[in-house]
Amino acid sequence: MYPALRVRKSEAEEVRKKLFEIRAVDGERRFIRRGDWVEIPLREGSTEKAGIYGEIIAQKKPVFKERPPAPFELIKKSLDVPYPDILPRKWELFGDVLIFRIPKELEEYGFDIARAYAEVLGAKTVLRDVGGIEGEYREPMVEFLLGDDAETIHTENGVRFKFDASKIMFSSGNIDERIRMAYVSNRRETVVDMFAGIGYFSVPMAVHSRPEKIYACEKNPVSFGYLKENIGLNSVEDIIEPILGDNREVCPENVADRVIMGYVGSTDLFLPYAFRALKSEGIVHYHETCPEELLPDRPISRLKSAAKSAGYRVIGANIRKIKSYAPGIIHIVVDAKIRPWNEENMP
Ligand SMILES: C[S@@+](CC[C@H](N)C(=O)[O-])C[C@H]1O[C@@H](n2cnc3c(N)ncnc32)[C@H](O)[C@@H]1O
Q1: What is the rounded average pLDDT for all residues in the chain?
Q2: Whole-number pLDDT of residue 344
């Protein structure tokens, strides 16, 4: 049954407002006018509360609103390529820069494809992802398909990130972690972000948690330039101190209540420096990419043994999945609570 409320045309506007307030209107169907009467479509389950305003009827011929065509359908329609069904159905849109993979069979149509996607999705530049993220600086392997300027401003969770998407990664799969980290700190804390990049964690944390201080270390001069810009763009100069260099050399020592280790590959090798950054008791957010069958033991035992060598111990560890990294490999983060290893707190 498609329930609707039948009301006089003269009362329809007044009743419509009331029904919207109580969330009784079915947004999928159109209002239908029949002579002096109007049928207002109702959501299932809301007939009782709506019934006080008129007569409840069951529409035999409901009229549904047209759905706007999904972007992919629009793009597909506008392109004349041999295998339209293998056109990219997934893409990343950062500000006005678009990134996607193109299957080999469609390589020669790259420019036309890029233009069609750019038009529908509103991008100035289109990049082709040719090899994921590489190396110590975690740089994206991309080629320009359309345009030549990949610098953009991407807004997420009220934070503005400026970066050049042809030179610097931005992982959409880490969005939940960026949002979570934005709120884990507080005004009393000093934080050290060992792998700050363009400010993926530092800037949202400064904007939303406003800790006393964040030391943000970054080795890649290009990322560092954007880190500085993003600190200014988000007006958190009073909180974040950007530090250029290798965290093993430039990371401040004995200052942190919280250390962020947002890097994957060989993060465990940096644990001694994370412990050095800690004031005494604190939290270390340790990232790792780990084969599923080694979870949760491998990251926890790495943390425990590095803590012990540094004169600390792990008194609590909470492990969270961030995303699937590769088949069978999971990107995880451990929130490890750390205390100095001394006589008093020995088990
Ligand atoms: C790309 S970020 C990781 C992304 C982040 N986890 C996110 O949410 O998307 C890692 C950063 O660490 C930097 N980096 C790598 N080794 C470093 C080191 N030894 N010292 C300081 N920065 C380093 C890289 O240049 C890169 O900018």
Answers
A1: 93
A2: 56
Both structure tokens of 147: 């345009």
DSSP-derived 3-state class of residue 187: coil
Domains and CATH numbers, the chain: 2-59 (3.30.70.2580), 71-149 (3.30.300.110), 172-345 (3.40.50.150)
Rounded alpha-carbon distances, angstroms, from residue 192 to 175, 272, 308: 20, 14, 20
How many A from CA of 256 to the centre of ligand 1? 19
Residue-wise pLDDT for 262-316, tens only, equals: 999 899 999 999 999 999 899 999 999 999 999 999 999 999 999 999 999 999 9
Map residue 198 onto helix, strand or coil: coil
Q: Which pTM was predicted?
A: 0.81
Instruction: Dig out the tokens for 12 from the structure.
Output: 């329809």
Atom of ligand 1 minimally distant from the CA of 171: 9
The encoded tokens of residue 323 equal 């995303």
Residue 278 contacts residue 338 (beta carbons within 8 Å): yes
Q: pLDDT tier at 68 (50, 70, 90 boundaries)?
A: low
Please tell me the distance between residue 46's alpha carbon and the centre of ligand 1 in angstroms: 52
Expressed in angstroms and rounded, the spacing between residue 263 Cα and the centre of ligand 1 is: 5
How far is it, in rounded angstroms, from Cα 154 to Cα 253?
33
Give pLDDT tens digits for 144-180. Answer: 999 999 999 999 999 999 999 999 999 988 999 999 9
Q: Which of 161, 195, 249, 325 to mutate to test the pocket of ligand 1 (most atoms within 8 A of CB)?
A: 195
Residue in this structure with the two tokens 């329609």, named with its chain if needed: 77
- Give the model confidence (pLDDT) of 178-214 as tens digits: 999 999 999 999 999 999 999 999 999 999 999 999 9
3-class DSSP state of 51: helix
